[in-house]
Design a protein that fits this description.
This protein has about 425 residues and is an alpha+beta fold. The chain is built from seven helices and 26 strands. This is DUF945 domain-containing protein.
């Protein structure tokens, strides 16, 4: 009996990697089919070679790109998956158990390769990505960036190290965190571009549809920070930079209505010889119906069709969704848009609401009477005087567009019942 049990155990241990390899191939095909459901990308497995303990997949990815003239061209990439079958794994992140470990590599476009003088000397793992897929379908990803210098025809690109980790679950939970120390570009021994330390944190949940579908919505939080971004010209007037930039967004859903807010801050901004400090931007949205937003996203993707009849049907479909969006009394606000100048702060805000009682889906013109907006802005007079804009300010004051209050310029705008008012006075048409 012991020999029989031992034989069964050995047989299972030997056979399991092959059986798991079959399951892994099925999951990889399913993943790329789901991703290709989004019109923005198409991924195909050009060739799959399955072995007993290891498999390899050749991947072809294409993306439509629209140029300035509206012409659509296709950009293609080639990639490769080198897969180790479970249950015992050690390729991705040390020894462990799971369905498979994958090492992902991508081939640069030929046009890009031709611009790199030292392409043959670059390590293959300059940017490496490995994944571990667990038996329950959860996938852990690790992406590493190694420090390297890329010699281009007209410049050199100095890339600093970075590390990002992430997890994706079948339920649509996505988390990512990591840091990249940045890069710089040098031309003729002069630094022309510099990106500082970058950090990213994502904790989101995709709802309503498959996470790769254009109709899906992600709720949760995203945090991004950048220590510095600078484009360096030969003088301060030709340069621009931003320091200590942080962007944070958060969204949640209650009773099928989404509330979201995005905040952006920057300690220091410089361009055209001017310096600004303490930039702050806060935008919020309330009572946005998630089912309608999902349908609108899907319709907007389908609107890219070249068939005029199909486009008309889609436009009609979008118009039909607008009344449903307005039922929840949506609100959009720029709660704050401000920055400090050497002459004083520039401040503004905006709030937009829609009265569903005044909107008729059969009469698009009624939207003009349903939308209500209020905005305020103020800035120091000295800021514009220093820019040599006194004549422009005088013209705007004469027209009543702005008013002067002591040393500040004030603007108040309101739109209600189809009538726009500036500083309390009706805005003339035309």
């Amino acid at each position: 009996m012991k020999k029989l049990l031992a034989a069964i155990a050995v047989g299972a241990a030997v056979a399991s990697p092959y059986l798991i390899g079959i399951k892994t191939e099925q999951q990889l095909n399913d993943l790329y089919q789901r991703m290709s459901a989004n019109p923005s990308v198409n991924i195909e497995i050009a060739h799959y070679q399955r072995g007993w303990f290891y498999s390899a997949a050749q991947i072809h990815m294409s993306m439509p790109v629209t140029d300035d003239q509206g012409n659509v061209t296709e950009i293609s990439f080639q990639g490769r998956h080198d897969i180790q079958h479970g249950p015992l794994l050690w390729t991705a992140d040390g020894l462990g158990f799971g369905l498979a470990d994958s090492v992902i590599s991508a081939q640069l476009l030929t046009e890009i390769q031709q611009q790199i003088i030292n392409f043959e000397q670059l390590p293959d793992d300059t940017v490496s990505s490995v994944m571990r897929t667990h038996f329950g379908g959860e996938t852990d990803t690790i992406m590493k960036i190694k420090p390297v210098t890329v010699e281009l025809i007209a410049a050199s690109l100095h890339i600093l190290p970075g590390l990002f980790t992430g997890t994706m679950t079948p339920a649509g939970e996505v988390t990512t965190s990591g840091q990249w120390q940045g890069m710089k570009i040098v031309e003729d021994d002069r630094e022309v571009l510099r990106l500082g330390n970058t950090e990213l944190e994502i904790a989101q949940h995709f709802i309503l549809s498959d996470m790769f579908s254009p109709a899906s919505l992600a709720i949760g939080s995203v945090k991004f920070s950048l220590a510095e971004a600078a484009v360096l010209g030969e003088s301060d007037a030709d340069s621009m930079s931003i320091n200590d930039l942080s962007v944070y967004s958060e969204s949640a859903v209650e009773n099928e209505l989404m509330v979201s807010q995005i905040t952006a801050d920057a300690k220091d901004i410089r361009f055209a010889g001017q310096q600004f400090t303490d930039f702050n931007y806060v935008m919020s949205m309330e009572n946005m119906n998630i089912n309608v937003i999902s349908k609108l996203k899907q319709l907007l993707v389908e609107l890219q069709s070249d068939d005029p009849e199909q486009q008309q049907l889609l436009v009609t479909g979008i118009q039909q969704q607008i009344p449903h969006l307005l039922v929840g009394d949506p609100k959009i606000s720029i709660d704050n848009l401000s920055v400090n100048t050497s002459a004083g702060p520039i401040e503004s805000d905006l709030k937009i609401t829609v009265d569903p009682q005044k909107f008729d889906a059969n009469n698009p013109v009624s939207m003009m009477f349903a939308v209500q907006a209020v905005a305020h802005g103020s800035a120091p007079v000295a800021f514009f005087e220093d820019l040599g804009m006194q004549a422009n300010i005088d013209d705007l004051m004469q027209q009543g567009v702005i008013i002067r209050d002591a040393n500040r310029l004030i603007l108040s705008f309101a739109f209600r019942d189809g009538q726009a008012r500036i500083n309390g006075h009706p805005m003339p048409a035309g």
